[in-house]
Amino acid sequence: MPKTLVIVESSAKASTIEKTLGNDYVVRASNGHVWDLPRSKESVDTENNFEPSYEIIQGKKKVLNSLVAAAKKVDEVILAPDPDREGEAISWHLAQSLEPAKKPIRRITFNEITPNAIRAAMQKPRQIDEDLVEAQQARRVLDRLVGYRISPLLWRGLRPGLSAGRVQSVAVRIILEREEEIRAFEPEEYWTIYAHLKTDAGDEFTARLYRIGDEKPTFGTYGFGIDEARAQEICSDAKKRPFIVDSVKMRQQRQSPKAPFITSSLQQDASNKLRFQARRTMSVAQSLYEGIDIGTEKIGLITYLRTDSTRVSADAVKEARAYIEDRFGKEYVPAKPPVYKSKKRAQDAHEAIRPTSTLRTPDSVKQHLSADQFKLYDLIWRRFVASQMERAVLDITTIDIKAGGYLFRTTGSILRFPGFRAVYMESEENAQNGDRQPLPDVKKDDRLNLKKMDPKQSFTEPPPRYSEATLVKELEERGIGRPSTYAQIISTILSRSRNYVVKENGRFKPTDVGELVTRMLMSSFPNILDPEFTAKMENELDEVEEGKRNWVAMMRSFYDPFTKALEGAADKMYDERKRLEEVTEIECAECSKPLIIKWGKYGKFLGCSGYPDCTHTQPLNGKGTGPEPVAPCPKCEKNQIVERRSRRGRIFYGCNGYPECEFAVWDPPVLGKPCPECDAPFLTLRKTKTRQYYLCYRRDECGYRADPTPVAAQDDEQNVEY
Asked: What phi-psi label fits residue 455: left (phi over 0), alpha (psi between -120 and 50 degrees) or beta?
């Protein structure tokens, strides 16, 4: 009969551990949390030290009964949920639930689910860490109070179903602030001037205008804030001058590898390179951590996935260095192992995310992995191995060319020694294109032949909207959230029920509802919507975890100002909503008074300024405000196609005569491009990251599709990013 019951969170992890431990152990799963605050009420006694009232989660009573029965049949219980706050809280709740079994209960943790790590952890059981439990409980209580006290104000002020959150609302504010920057942005014209040159030996290359006398570029490295007439004048004048090599400078640059992944950098790289959303990345990483069947054994392929530390164990470094020397040679192994500095306030309890064994190469385990698992494991493995390799060495050449008072410059590079780049490229562009071709062999005072001058007009662009990768990076840099919460934050703000944020071309844009809710909250709860205040709260939770701060005292310092802010908050929200209204020049169809852009529970609409005497309202679309019609409707031939949103927030293009006319397409119509096959009045344009092509909107009947063309990329001539 088994002597020890081991309890973990998931069945997958239980299966992996059970194959390592012998017959003296039985392994069971709690399937996540077993206790939580009930949804039906606030369940926090603010008058009694913020005591939470936990209940057994619906559907978990049977699980707990089974665990209690199993505990009664063994000599001791080992709790082995994940090594973080949530895992410690689950352990504490399980310990309380298993008291009827009256058996000794101890706690173990491991950073990787491998036989060696599991056996080592079993040799070092400990008591439950009360500081970790209190930190998790403080976060849970804090989030419950914020959500359950503020959300009802939104229900009364706008509509049921809306919610506020201590972190989610700040994330939406950050997205809104970027949108405001974009709205306020005014593009400025600038010109970049290229000289296409040829040596006497026949080598051709391009240089860009770098200086005009003492005048430096106005925009970036090569852009000048001039108009077209001045650009043409410069080109005409430069053509009359001899192009003489002024200097040739060569230097060597060493490029260091990046640190092994932490949670945020894994999510960012998986988004950029694999197009994985944060939740998808964490789900796949969880499966790699919990264990994969490889031949006769089941083993975790990566270390714990929720971490903000770049620390790596000495054994892992030793194995990686031996592999690198054997596979690439001694010159690829640095004299001393690289040490990477973790970010400020990083929790150093766990290592960086790495393969549990460097010897398990991606190709050696590919047959046992799904497509997503292989892609992510390959990314993690390469990043870790590269982090332990020697730096890359590049030869950088810069050529300055003078034409009278004009100085032109071109820069190129040659990869002298690949180092870590033999395994892992820092960007997709470099991975696809490699290094640029070396520049021609020229020397000072060489005369060059001018083939042509090429002035190019450009305009400054607004800052881009946040993608998942850049939003995670922004949250991390501001200290908002923690490794375990980024994916959930993004999922929450995108949820259909709230509709605060939508994605357009893979980037976040606030909806009208998201903007209104955020502005109302900012007017009433400036602290809670302040990113710096939120980061301060995260630091205080870390101090609770470290035993440096009492969680009840922390809650009291938050709660007292919070309750004062709640007083009169509803009135402030209403005032903010009224302040955002805009009078238009559109006349009411019923009483001829001006219509007002109002903010309703589903976004903006037009309402009569004569309300309540006149209750006329109408939608914005197609009425002179909001999205402009993009094409005549080909189905009803009397209405217009306008940009609309589905219930899930996805943009589509439909007739503004709906529901009488139900015409709709997903891709934007392009006027002036009839279908060459069936003479449909327009084609639609579909864009991906790298390609765009035209489609006939009558796909079922026609199916015309033009050949894809590359999306225009910025010309970077011989320059490389280094």
From this structure: beta
What pLDDT does residue 645 have?
72
Q: Tell me which residue of 90, 150, 80, 148 sits closest to 120, measured CA to CA.
A: 80
What pLDDT score was predicted for residue 344?
65
| pLDDT score of 435 | 41
Q: Are strands 406-417 and 105-107 parallel, antiparallel or unpaired?
A: unpaired
Give the span between the Cα atoms of 87 and 80, in whole angstroms.
8
Task: State the catalytic residues.
Answer: 304
Look up the pTM and report it. 0.80
In sequence order, which ranges of 294-427 are alpha helices (DSSP H)? 314-328, 362-365, 371-387
Which residues touch 271 (CB under 8 Å, ≥6 apart)? Answer: 277, 278, 281, 467, 468, 469, 472
Q: How far is CA 137 from the centre of its chain?
A: 27
Q: Which residues contact 635 (CB under 8 A, 6 or more apart)?
A: 655, 661, 662, 663
Radius of gyration (C-alpha) of the chain in whole angstroms? 31
Burial (CB count within 10 angstroms: exposed 0-12, middle 13-18, buried 19+), residue 335:
exposed
Provide the 8-state DSSP code for 604: E
Low-confidence ranges of the chain (pLDDT < 70): 1, 344-349, 426-437, 496-498, 602, 621-630, 647-649, 689-691, 707-722
Q: Mention every residue, 6+ apart, whose C-beta is less than 8 A from residue 461.
A: 187
Give every CB contact of residue 389 below 8 A, 6+ residues apart in sequence: 257, 324, 328, 332, 333, 334, 419, 420, 422, 423
| pLDDT at res. 721 | 23
3-state secondary structure of 505: coil
Residue 144's pLDDT is: 94
Pairs from 605-613 (Cβ < 8 Å, separation ≥ 24): 609/583
Beta bridge partner(s), residue 434: none
Task: Quote the pLDDT of residue 93.
Answer: 96
Residue with structure tokens 């844009």? 509
